[in-house]
Structures are given as C-alpha cells and as structure tokens.
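As described in the Methods, two query proteins were run sequentially through the folding procedure within a single session, without resetting any intermediate state between them. The first query and its resulting structure tokens are shown here.
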Amino acid sequence: MTDSDPDRTLSRATARRGMRRPTGAVLRAVFPRGLDWSLPLARGRVVIGRVASSDDVPPLAHETVSRSHCAIELDAALRAHVGTDLGSHNGTRVDGRSIADVRQPLSDDAVVQLGDVLVIYESGRGLAAPPAPQVSRDNIPGDSAAIRLVRAAVARAAPDPSPVLLIGETGTGKEWIAREIHRLSGRTKGMLAINCSALSPQIIDSQLFGHVRGAFTGANSDHEGLFRAADGGTLFLDEIGELPLELQPKLLRVLQEGQVQPVGSTKTVSVDVRVVAATNRDLSTSIESGEFRRDLYARLALWEIRVPPLRKRRSDVLSWIDRLCRRWNEQRDGVPGEVLTLHPEVAEILVRHRWPDNLRGLDRLIHELATGAAPDRVVSRDDLPPWLNGGTAGSGVIAVPPAEPRPVADKKPPIPTREQFVAVFEEMGGNVRAMAKHFGRDRRQIYRWLESYGLKERRERIRGRND
C-alpha cells in the first residue's frame, strides 16, 4: 500500500460518459493491383490526388485520379471523417453514391472510388493491433484491420494449452485458424477435425470418448474415440453448438480433468488434448434457451476469438479472389497460373458484395469465372453469374448505380437492406405471411430473402419452439 495524504482525496480515473477516445483511421487502395498506397488519417484536412498535397500525403498515382481529387477531414460534430469531392474529372463515390455535391461521412469499411481506383476506409482498434510475425499469413491472410486483430489474438492464445473458442459465420475460415493455433502450439501430434453436427446422434458418445467391447449391440471390439486418438495433439470441434445437451457434461469433464470415460467402462483414461472449438451460433442465446451449458461455454471460451465475415474485411476481398484463383489453377494444371483481370466496375461490385457465404461464395465465383476463361480476358459485369450480378437483395449484392441517373421503371416497393429485413423478421417472429404483407411482396420473394440473408435455419428453429 502506498502512503496517502490524509487531507487530499484523488478523483477516480474514469472516462466521462458520452466521451470517446479518438480512434485512428486509414485509407488503403485495393484496386488496381500493384497500387501500393495507404494514408493514415488524423484530425486535420488532407487533399488526395495524383500530385502530393504535402509531405505527409503520398500521391495517388493513377491516370484516372485528378491532381486534387478529393478531401478528407475529421468532423468534430459528427465524430467521423467526411469526404468531399474537389471537382475531380472522374468523380468520387462512397459506397456507390456520388459525393459531387455533398459532404459524405465515412463509415468503417466504406468503399471510396476515385476514378478507377478503389480505396477502403478503416477505423477502430484493429489498426493498433500488435504485429504477429509468428502467425503464418498463408494460413491467416489479409491486411484488413479486422484480420490483424485475429492474428494478434492467435499469437496470444496459441502457446497456452487452454481451450479456444472461434466464433464466426459459416465459411469465414475458422478451420484454417484452428490449424494455425495448432501449428504454433508446439504439440508433437497432429490435429484431428470433426464436425459435431455430422456425428451420429446414436453413437456420438462413443465417437468422442470411445467404448469397450460389448458396451452396446455391434461393439465387437474396443474403440479409442476421438479424444484418445488426439492425445498429444489438438482436437478441432467444429459446430460445437450442435453438441447434444446430454453429452456436454462429459466434454466439460474432459476439459477440467483431462480424463475420458469410454462407454461401457467404469475406468477413466487420462488424455492430453488441446481443444479448439468453433461455432456460427450465438451461444449466449443457446444458453438462455437451455440448449447449451453456461459452465461449458465458460470453459471453452478461456480464449475467445471472433472471426469477422468478409463484409467486415472488404480490403481483403480482392486479394482472396487472387489467392483462390491461383489455388484453382494449381489444382487443375499443377501451376498457380494467372489471376483474373477485373474491369473497375466489377472490382467495385465484388468489394461491395455482402458475401453471405463468405469464402465459399468466393470459391463459387472463381469456379464459374475461371472455367474455360481466356488468359487475357477482362472480366466485365456481363461475365458475372446471375446469382451475383443484377443488384437484387436475393443475390446479396449491392448494385453499383449508373454514372447518370435513369428514370425508375420498376414500381415495386424498394428492396430492404439486410438490416431492415432482419429487424422486421425479429419483430414478426419469422412469420412469412406477415413479412410479405409488410414489404408488399409475395411469399416466394420472402423465402428467397430468408435464404440469401442466412435466416432460413433461424426461422426453422423459431417455428420448432412455437410448434
């Protein structure tokens, strides 16, 4: 205890309510390829253009960018950076909207288009994430602030033997992250991966913990189970939220005591297994509904890493497309081959697409575009598959508006954003008839939106509880 002045009381070191620490921000060019340009943003006003406006602002050297193209400044009242076009020749757009006559606030992951150049605006604590050189960028690639946070978290968690819980949407690359955690753990044996939703409900106990001969009909010999098979290594339990409630106490025992009890046996067996679990479910909701044990969640989440969806790491989308294209070529031709050449309009569509299937959606796109493609072909908007091109909510893409306004010919009610649709979905408890009436669309369209926005399974769970 330190000495204190009996006549003086110090104020508590608390933050004032309503006040936020200023966060950093950066603009980073992602298209065209090879344009290595980034600009950290501070409080002052900066002018971006083909010619450097100051020693602190590098030139954006591209022929479609004007000498003084646009300005970015921090608006104290809005607590946000604001973009203003400076009468540029090819215009400035933010998330597809021209800012020729407006001052446009920039939200995190906003897509700023200056001529044919695409720049991503990023802000928040991910920009200050410590570097993690020990984490393989081949296994966890990307330069976005969101993925830098993931690499920093992996670097901290990997050497510790405690369980890790990866939370993220389907297709975000959780298994690749699990493999990197295993690689950095220094464990001598390999990693076993199992999808809990694919385990047989009748014999899942035996599959995980093993059984002895005669434990049940058909058990003609001893079986070690996945935990004993992974002894000395790592066990990756994907879709942990699907683990039956009656088996969760047994998993908790393994995590706490390092012992498994095979089915039909009265003895326990010690195991040394690092557990990495993953889920795309909101386990807090599952806990409240009684589908997942709170104590098991607390044990699994000694390290909790949230894996961002692609729409939260837009600056990585085009590099992922190149990576998957090289892999596609190598799998078929034995060599990485050339990446796709994208028209600027296509690049903007792909960066702004919501990618509800995440990396699986990119894989699907590469398969459709790369099959039979000429090496020198430039991918235009007409080349995009119907499920992505066209700008409907059913496809999940945010349409890029034309350069000049056109008369509106479609008299249908406006297409809701995902956020608007989810709000109505929650308010109406997933009732398709009520949602169709609310949006002025037929039920078939509502079902398409449920599918594209990833709400189909949630609706089925709601219906199951109400039946």
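Immediately afterward, the second query was submitted; its sequence and tokens are:
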Amino acid sequence: MAAKSIYGVGLDAGSTKTRLVVCALEGGRLRLVGAASVASQGWVKGRIFDQRAITESVLAALTEVEATAGIPVESTVVGMGGPVIRGANSRGVVDMGYLREIDQRDINRVVDRAQKVQMPEDRMLLQLFPQDFVVDDHPGHRDPRKMEAARLEINAHLVMTSVQEHTSLVTAVNHAHLSVEETVFEGLASCYGVVLPEERRQGIAVVDIGAQSTELVVYYGDAMHLAATIKVCGDHFTRDLAQGLCLTFEDAEQVKLEYGCAMAETTAPNVVIDLPTPDNREHRHAHRKFINGILEARAEELFGFVRSELTRVGLEHALIGGVFLTGGAARLPDLCDVAERVLQCQTRFGLPAGIEHWPEFMNEPDWSVAAGLAMYSAKLKTQERRETRGFLGKLLK
C-alpha cells in the first residue's frame, strides 16, 4: 500500500499580506504545489485588532491556494511575530545521583527544568532552543546521549509570546477551517527558509523586516543565541516620509516604492520629483536626495538597534556567515549597503531556497517566512511518521 503523501503547509499571516504556501515532499525534496497571497486586514502595529478580519484574510488565501494546488488543505504551521515576542536564556540542571549513561529520559528531564521559569503575566513558552549541554562541568556538547555522567545541565534560549495574542491567532485560523499543527517564531521560520545549516554554524543573523514588526534571529554554531524584536519596521520609513514631505501615509508609501532608496549619497543632487497632491492644490516638488536622506536616517537607526542586540550577546564581531535581510520592507534599494556599513559584516537578501518549481516572481525576501513555515511543516510531519518526536528530534536543524 502506497504511503500517504506528505504536504508541508505554511501560513504567514502578515500585517499587510497573508501568504499561504503548500509543498509536496517527494523523494526527500520539497516541490511547490500551490501558493497564495492576499491583502491582510485586522492588524495594528503588529498586534491583532480584528480577529474576524484575520479569519477572512486566511480564508481568502486558503480558497486561492486550494484552487491552484488542486488538493484540500486541512492544517498548517502558523508564524508568530511582532512586539509580543520575547527571548531569554535559561538553564536546567539534573543530578542523576551516580555515574551512569545519559538517555532520552534524562534529556527530557533537564529540558523540562529549563522551561520551568517564572514568566510574566500573559506569557507562554512558544519554543525552546538548546544552546549546549554541560556534562559533569564539561560544556559544549550538542547531544550528550550515551555519555556517562552524574550531572547534566542545559543552556537554552526560550522564545515567549503573549497567551492572548497566541490564542487569538490560533482561533482566527481555526475559524478559517484550518487546524494549527504548530506555531513558530517568524524569525526562525525565515531563517529556516533561507539559510543553510552549514551557513548557520559560521555565525549568522536574519533580520526579517515587515511592515509593522521586525524580528531578529542570531545563530552561532548549531545553536540559536538570540531571538528578539526590533522596534523599527517598514511603516516607520513611510511615516518619516509622510511627516517630512507633508503627505498622507498612502502617498508617502507610493513615493517610497517609486523613488526611495536607503543611501542619499548615491542620488544626484539635482533630481527633483513631483509629489502627489490633492486636486485643489498646486503641484509640489521635492529633491530625491532629500527623500533618500530621510530613509537613510531611519535605516541607520534600524541597524543600530540590531547592532545593540548583537553586542548584548557578545556576537557583534562573530557573524562570519553574515546578515540576511528578509521581509517585504527589506526590498528598499541600498538597504544591504547601509546594513554592511553599520554592522560591519557581509549582508545579503535572504531568498527562499530548497523548494523545487519555486517561481521567479516569488523569489523575493517577503516570501521567506511562508517558505520556511512550509519546510518546517513537512519536516514535522516526516518526524511524526517516523515516530521520533522526542525533544531533540522536534528541534529542526
């Protein structure tokens, strides 16, 4: 009897676009079978404002993707991000009483100790990422099973979120007739979709710049060392232009997309553009160099916050693999150059990789989260089928 096909499904319910990706796992490779992108409603400043509107956006994406994929979609892995995300280090210790071989039960116990931390009100654990195990005071072990020890410790990074926000998002997806396989930090999903495991070991950072939130993930070796949110996002660039040019938010967004870039010095000083104006007003103009100067200042602030986070965990000079920029707002021209100047390391766009039949028009940084979530979903279902859902097996490398 032929095995049932495995489909990886990822839902990126973003603040401006809701993206749904469906992939089939065939011969150890993922193949795209359907994708949808629809306008999002119901979000304000990266938080849920109207749960019903989010359900409608998810339902619209589901209807579109089922039509293109030709299969019913029943469940999905969902991304979570925004200002409700917090990261923190934790430590768990187990004294085994006498020298003996470490087994999976000891791993489960020490992980359980690490995640039993006092959390603020309305906080829940979203994911836990081991950094290393300490075996009888000897650190640096990735998998200590079958080693002999009397004491086992774990250093881990916890990603926490709001209980209320988590419940609201899962409920909105359920109301769109989708069950939620798992909720995943969007920064991790983006990293999973664009960065190869061997690249992570060199030390990398992924900066996922969305319209209403920016997520940061830092890997060094095989371990995640930082998960954080940055308080500058794509809408801040647009608001700066709206204030500086006396435009509406919508007109400022249009100017940013048509004429903006993140480095003023690359713009000729004599280039003048027409600004959008109401019908009862005379036409106004602005120097393009002035516009880009506004955008450059905000870009420097954004990556200044990223640099501060890297300094906080002691990795400001350790990212040999470089920085990957993902998210829709990362498409601002010359943003990579500003990131390299501020962070002093190689920077590039993070584009979805490893999925067959991925079309050229979707080869953009704003599809990275949805692609990573679909990969995560396929890996999760494969592990379930093999019945290896122990704690270490659940952590996707």
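The chain is about 35% helix and 35% strand. We note this only descriptively and draw no conclusion about the first query from it.
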